[in-house]
């Protein structure tokens, strides 16, 4: 009889922890979406700012690059700046997810994030 009550108490505790974890994950997702990172290429010739949830916020192309009328260079530097910003956003997400995993102290969570490329 006591084993049944103990199991029920464990299930209630797990359900409560699951709810807390879902709330923290939703809060983290929203917070990451508000964060921004910037990628650069060609010095400061091209700068791309994106949010933590990978939405492009702005693209800045220096005037000298526009005046150079070198389409291939412009395309390459834009691509490089976008890729740089994406990598920074991935790193930001991984750092924030690792913090959450540590805060929640759930065994195996850090490994799961790593397998997903988030930690």
Structural commentary:
- By secondary structure, this protein is α+β, with helices and mostly antiparallel strands.
- The protein is 67% helix and 15% strand.
- It has 4 helices and 3 strands; from the N terminus they run αβββααα.
- A 3-stranded antiparallel sheet has the order 1-2-3.
- Helix 1 runs antiparallel to helix 3 and helix 3 (71-104) packs antiparallel against helix 4 (109-115).
- The mean pLDDT is 84.
CA-CA gap between termini = 43 Å
Overall number of strands: 3
Oligomeric state:
single chain
Helix content: 55-70%
Rg is 22 Å
Main sheet properties: 3 strands, antiparallel
Biggest sheet: strand arrangement: 1-2-3
Q: Please, what is the average pLDDT?
A: 84
The proportion of strand residues reads: 15-25%
The general outline is: elongated
Give me the secondary-structure category: alpha+beta
List segments where confidence is low: pLDDT < 50 over at least 5 consecutive residues: none
Number of helices: 4
Elements, N to C (H/E): HEEEHHH
């Amino acid at each position: 009889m006591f084993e049944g009550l103990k199991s029920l108490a464990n299930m209630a505790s797990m359900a409560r922890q699951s709810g807390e974890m879902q709330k923290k994950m939703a809060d983290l997702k929203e917070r990451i979406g508000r964060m921004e990172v910037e990628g650069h290429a060609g010095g400061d010739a091209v700068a791309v700012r994106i949010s933590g949830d990978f939405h492009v916020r702005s693209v800045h192309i220096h005037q000298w690059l526009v005046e150079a009328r070198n389409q291939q260079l412009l395309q390459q530097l834009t691509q490089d700046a976008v890729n740089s910003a994406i990598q920074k956003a991935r790193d930001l997400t991984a750092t924030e997810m690792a913090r959450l995993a540590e805060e929640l102290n759930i065994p195996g969570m850090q490994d799961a994030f790593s397998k997903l490329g988030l930690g």
